[in-house]
Amino acid sequence: MSWRIVVPGSTANLGPGFDSIGLGLSLYLQLDVTPQDTWEIVHLSEHLPQNIVIEEHLIYCIAKQVADQYNKPLPSCKIEMSSELPFARGLGSSAAAIVAGIEVANLLCDLNLTTQDRLNISSQIEGHPDNATASVLGGLTISSMTKDGIVDTLHVNNVDASFVVFIPNVELKTSEARGVLPEQFDRPYAVEASANANMLAASLMARDFKRVGHYMEQDRFHEPYRAKLIPNYADIRTAAKEAGAYGTALSGAGPTMISIIPTSIEESFVEAMKQRFPSYDIVLTKADEQGVQVTSIAAV
């Protein structure tokens, strides 16, 4: 028996929805998993590293951690892995890998994990539930996590909007991006920041995408502090708005930025942005509607 695991990447925050709002994107991590006598991991995508140490590989480490958590030995397998998610760009590559690693353990160890198990475990490992819940469920997720690691998620599918991501050829580790954030906010500032987050969530639920775009650009929690780390941050926001975007924000911690745009201008918008920012990978995408998917396949 062999399995194919497909996990969507994600964008998090969408501006002020800090560490809480996530959106699965139709950009994917794919693993073909075949049991065998020894561990083997093969990277099929060019941007994935070719020097692989099994014991240090994130997929293996997560699968081993989950198996240990359930007091199960982790059987060996071959994993052939391809990805549309560049590393450390703010498109949920680590969360997708964590969700995939959990699924590897679930399959090899016959754990019969529930969806709630997947949400809890992935969010606990990530440290926050935004990207993880979006990769597990797809669609829009608005989540909280207790100190005990229990996740509560409001999940909305059919997010019928178009998104464009601006992917630069530079990495930004989340730890570095978190390092510039203040430890506390004054009360009036925090009230404004919270109100903007509430309005973003409500606008997303109402599918009022023009208003979504407005509140994507009203973050007070993290973007004012991270902007200096992001190449062309102000230029991209301005150019996207001039080309018809509803709004633009950091994707997660960045450095990728994401715009929500009217579906009717997809082609003209992407072409304009490619001409304006030729060193960027400009990608049109939609919300993923499935979340993590596992199917049986012929032996590979």
Automatic annotation (TrEMBL):
A GO cellular-component term linked to this record: cytoplasm
Subcellular location: Cytoplasm
Residue ranges of domain GHMP kinase N-terminal in the record: 58-139
Matches recorded under SUPFAM superfamilies: GHMP Kinase, C-terminal domain, Ribosomal protein S5 domain 2-like
Reactions it catalyzes: L-homoserine + ATP = O-phospho-L-homoserine + ADP + H(+)
Gene3D superfamilies, alphabetized: 3.30.230.10, GHMP kinase, C-terminal domain (3.30.70.890)
Enzyme class: transferase
Gene that this polypeptide is encoded by: thrB
Pfam families on file: GHMP_kinases_C, GHMP_kinases_N
EC number assigned by the record: 2.7.1.39
Stated name of the protein: Homoserine kinase
Pathway(s) served: Amino-acid biosynthesis; L-threonine biosynthesis; L-threonine from L-aspartate: step 4/5
Similarity comment: family membership: Belongs to the GHMP kinase family. Homoserine kinase subfamily.
Binding-site residues for ATP, renumbered to this chain: 86-96
Limits of the GHMP kinase C-terminal domain: 201-278
Cited function: Catalyzes the ATP-dependent phosphorylation of L-homoserine to L-homoserine phosphate.
GO annotation terms (biological process): threonine biosynthetic process
Organism: Caryophanon latum
Keywords: Amino-acid biosynthesis, ATP-binding, Cytoplasm, Kinase, Nucleotide-binding, Threonine biosynthesis, Transferase
Molecular-function GO terms, alphabetical: ATP binding; homoserine kinase activity
Keyword Transcription in record: no
